[in-house]
Fold each of these.
Amino acid sequence: MSWVTKTFSSTLGRKLLMALTGLFLIIFLIGHVSGNMLLFKGDGGQAFNEYADFMTTNQLVKALSYLTYISIIAHVVYAIILSVVNKKARPVGYAEVKASSNSSWNSRNMGVLGTIILIFIVVHLQNFWAQMHWGSIPMVTYESGEYRDLYAVVNLAFSNIGLVILYVVAMAFLGFHLNHGFASAFQTLGLNHKKYTPAIKFIGSAFSILVPALFASMPIYIYFSSLN
């Protein structure tokens, strides 16, 4: 067995991989929410459709998207493995009482939060990613060329109040997940320092509120815009 296999089959190695994939997915969220903010531009969807076309045709972006898929799968798989291992190793009773008094709710329920977020990702991929690749999408023409009108797809999806509620609730759960995961990732990487840890926790808390709030604001904005 190679040192790589030994490392990533150990508890420490699994936590390391969880931290690395988690931080990569945080970077992905920053890029994703930045692009989606074009929905607010008020230009009839031109900037968003041009952005979506670039994201689906640029070869470097395509490579990064495959890395994102792999990171999501690895993050989920190793989270399940760690949860099972920790549950088997943890005594019942006193340890559970002690854990509840010494840790936050979201840190004790990362598995539940992660499962809900995974369900949301599947729904999200079905509504948009699958539509983008295999759905019947109308075309729209601008001076820069002809594009698939993904803006229209998004507007149609978020005219459904049920889907809007699902997204908003899922973003709340994502916020709880990020609030613990952000600081935990740096701790796993050994980047704890009395001078920098408070700043990391502050940035993590701010990030876990701001990014999910921005994501949630989009379906809310589109839904109420569709009522006018």
Amino acid sequence: MRGKRIGSGAALLAGTLAVTGLALAPSAAAVTPTTATVTANCGLFGGGAATLTATQSGTSATLKLSSTAITAPIAIGANSITSTLTMANSTGSARVFTGTVNPAMAVGDPIVVGPLGGTVAAGDGLDLYQGSLKMVVFGITVTCTATGPQSPGPFVFD
């Protein structure tokens, strides 16, 4: 009988520890929404609707911009655009995302940059409106600015 009580006690203890571990485990950080659209003007690259995609892992986040309306005026090699994406932050200082990640693009191809890495804090509300995307291609700087707020709204980070 004593063996059954020890076995039952051990099982109860293991179950309690498992539940406690789940309760204390950190929750996965999430950004909401994960995609947003914005209308941007990019000078010689053109202008129009662009899609921003956001991901978050703790205080690290990435943003990617793609647009079929904004196109490459020249052939661009993979990972040859130096991009700086500055996002206006409703809770304080702007957040900056940087990188040199882009696919190869032929003349007229849609522009895609990112994912660009940066740091965020819980509660940050980031919007490209009143921020900018600067791309340096073959020594030429192209700056994109949003003509209005993102839809459905700013990226809010946990």
Amino acid sequence: MSVGEWLITMLIMIIPIVNIVMLFVWGFGNADSRRNYARASLIWMAICILLGILFYGAMFAIFFNFMRIN
């Protein structure tokens, strides 16, 4: 891919919702030089979402446990 194509790719990744759709298209569509980048980005997104759920779940559990004690 040329530098211009990578600039367009980065521009697309700035747009909300469109970036997620395009990551799925690039990651699971035809063989493309963006395939591995898209798959790695989707894996990182999934990891961050899971860690966020665990963190907020722990914070709610601590908060409700504290409220029950008092």
